[in-house]
Sequence to fold (73 residues):
Amino acid sequence: IKFLNRKISQASIDQVQEVRASTSGIIGNVLRYGNMVIKTAGDASDFQLQSIPKALETSRIIHTLIDEYRHNL
Fold:
């Protein structure tokens, strides 16, 4: 049963190299659902999130956190 399968991955904020988000279609844009890809360095796998709420806003928040982290180094 596939819905019982789970895979958990994590990467530290310094491994994040790129964050992309997109929405498509009328429903996705009106309801603000979209897809997000977080590309990471090293052995960490890339994260592909599909049909998540507020994808564009979440992407901006992640970018802000990364900028703050790098500024404080």
In short: The first helix runs from residue 25 to 31. The chain has a mean pLDDT of 91. The chain has two helices and three strands.
